[in-house]
Amino acid sequence: MSTTRSEAGLKASEARRAAIRLHSASDAERRGALQAMAQAIRAGRAEILEANARDLGVLADRPRAFRDRLTLTDARVDRLADALQTIADLPDPAGQVVESRTLPNGMRIARVRVPLGVVAMIYESRPNVTVDAAGLCLRAGNAVILRGGAESVHSDRALVDAIHAGLRAAGLPAAAVSLLEQRDYQAIQDLVGQRGLVDLVIPRGGEALIAFVTEHARVPVLKHEKGVTHIFVDRDADIEMAVRIIVNAKTNRPSTCNALEKALVDAEIAPWLLPPLVRQLRAAGVEVRGDPETRRFVPDVIPATEADWEAEYLDLILAVRVVPGLDEALQHIRAHSTGLADGIVTEDAARADRFVREVDSAAVLVNASTRLVDGGEFGRGAEIGISTSRLHARGPMGLEELTTTKWIVRGTGQVRT
After folding, report:
1. Is residue 2 helix, strand or coil?
2. Per 3-state DSSP, what percentage of the chain is helix, strand, and coil (rounded to 5)?
3. Domains of the chain (ranges plus CATH)?
């Protein structure tokens, strides 16, 4: 067996033993561990920022959006620690009673939430995911194996060192949060093949990564696919509101999966909406690409190609298309959306209701920015990802989605006849 395989197998075995301990850990123990982890991250700030600078130092030629996803600052380190505290303050999902009833024969049945067990989190160069995944999995009573991107190896290691310090201070096993040092695809293949040790794999990243995990996994996979998101501006939209929402959805952290990538504009409102919209987008540094109808109203917009309708830019680029109305907008979204988040801006309740009914995405918005599709913004504390799968969980995944359920039956001697 190769070194890569033995590392993944060892980490999975250690995580399984840690999961058994976490399964019996009290709410106070897990809450205390998260608080200790937050304190350790603050205490290790200098080491974490130094490690992040080492990662960034060899990535000067990478795109701005890529570097932004990887970059840690004093403020972002504070937010990482704050996120752990927020998660610690959330209600404990383990042991929650989902339903209960007493049958005519006197037997009492209850369905309760329990931890999944061991979660493998595979992602690309996002240090914040390292902390969010560790915090959410631990709060729900799970052990987690983290495999970040090769570009963030020093940042991830420094963060996990701080997390381990917090776990030890709280008296919980360090293997509750482990980091796979090997960063090649062979390591991923070995990790997702640990049937019997790993209970769920969550991949977050590009199409190639998710396709590889899905092809090779021998354990369940919950996918977080790319975000080709849309906002349709209806003919009865408030123009000022539409501009504000689109600019926010595009420019507020454009490197995230819930940032806006496509704007569809009803032809009836296009003459009044497009000039101020493009003007404000450009003022914010956005490159606008448009179809021929868009360029009729704003001639100097860059011509859009067919590839633009499929692209996830993760950068300050927005593709704009003018459509005859709601029917064509829905048709475009069905053809090009990846099902993560799509929205409409309109004052017409009937068209809003139809949009909500017919757009089959994990999150559908009316008069709101796609950047709000987030576990924290949804009041869930944080998120481990935005699931585009259809089984078990869909949309922003918080604590409940990191649990399963079991049935508890209490009888007084009942038998089946």
Report:
1. coil
2. 45, 20, 35
3. 3-223+389-410 (3.40.605.10), 230-372 (3.40.309.10)
Distance (Å, rounded) from C-alpha 181 to C-alpha 147?
A: 7
177 closest CA partner among 139, 205, 230, 226? 139
Q: CB–CB of 351/233 below 8 Å?
A: no
| The token pair that represents 220 in the structure block | 């369940």
For the stretch 94-121, what's the b/e string if a residue is b when 16 or more beta carbons lie within 10 angstroms of its beta carbon?
A: beeeeeeeeeeeeeeebebbbbbbbbbb
> Rounded to an integer, what distance in angstroms lies between the CA atom of residue 40 and that of residue 159?
9
Read off the pLDDT of residues 312-357 as tens digits, 9 standing for 90 and up: 999 999 999 999 999 999 999 999 999 999 999 999 999 999 999 9
C-alpha dihedral (389, 256, 303, 298), degrees to nearest 10: 120
pTM over 0.90: no
Nearest in space to 218 (alpha carbons), one of 355, 361, 353, 120: 120
Q: What is the pLDDT of residues 195-214, one digit of tens each?
A: 999 999 999 888 889 999 99
